[in-house]
Design brief:
The protein is α+β, with helices and mostly antiparallel strands. Helices cover 54% and strands 9% of the residues. The chain has a domain of 128 residues: Orthogonal Bundle (Helix Hairpins).
Length: 216
């Protein structure tokens, strides 16, 4: 009997709970604004914005084209025609060496070449004479007029004449190279601007001795 009473009481309690839930749901359906509070919303026009990202980096600033100019031959700087910060044009003379020593070297090389040419001509003449003497000695020896010693001496003279001509020709070639070197030094005793630009820095001054390839 007691168990039945407890079971009945539990059923009644469940029924009351379900009824309360049903009433709350009905009230919410009738008044939705009471269930969800209203919110104010602001609108704006859509715009396209370009975003630029700023990048921070470290480095060294340099020119697109920078050249360290120098003489191709050594000597004393006679004059520098430009100053730092000055604009220059392509082909403009920027500096030059003192030409006294270079001109003297060029003149000496040309004189040496002329003498070498004379030596070659003399050696050719000596060779022709030696060949003639040897032919004469050879004929006389065959005729038993000249001795073997005379023939051998003529042969030695012929060999010497040939060697002298070869040496003279080598000497002339060497003198020709000296002339080319001297002419090169004379031709490149000036520095000219390779292109339009600006003088950034002077590394030498007038009356200063510089070597080949030393930036000025």
């Amino acid at each position: 009997m007691t168990i039945q009473l407890k079971l009945i009481a539990l059923i009644v309690a469940l029924a009351i709970g379900l009824a309360a839930c049903s009433n709350n749901a009905s009230e919410n359906d009738k008044n939705p604004s009471a269930a969800v509070p209203a919110r104010t919303v602001e609108t704006a026009d859509v715009e396209v914005v370009q975003h630029r990202e700023v990048i921070f980096a470290s480095g060294k600033l340099s020119l697109e084209q920078e050249a360290r100019l120098s003489f191709k031959t050594g000597g004393i700087i006679k004059r520098i025609f430009v100053d730092e910060g000055q604009s220059v044009r392509q082909g403009q003379v920027l500096a030059e060496l003192a030409l006294e020593e270079i001109s003297a070297q060029t003149q000496q090389a040309r004189l040496g070449q002329q003498q070498a040419e004379i030596n070659v001509e003399n050696a050719k003449l000596a060779l022709r004479l030696a060949e003639r003497d040897y032919q004469n000695a050879s004929g006389l020896y065959q005729d038993s007029v000249a001795t073997l010693e005379q023939l051998q001496n003529a042969e030695v003279q012929l060999d010497n004449a040939r060697n002298q001509l070869e040496a003279a020709r080598k000497g002339m070639a060497m003198q020709g190279e000296q002339v080319e070197v001297a002419s090169f030094n004379l031709r490149y005793s000036k520095i000219t601007a390779p292109s339009n630009g600006t003088i950034l820095k002077k590394l030498a001054e007038s009356n200063e001795l510089v070597g080949p390839g030393t930036p000025v």
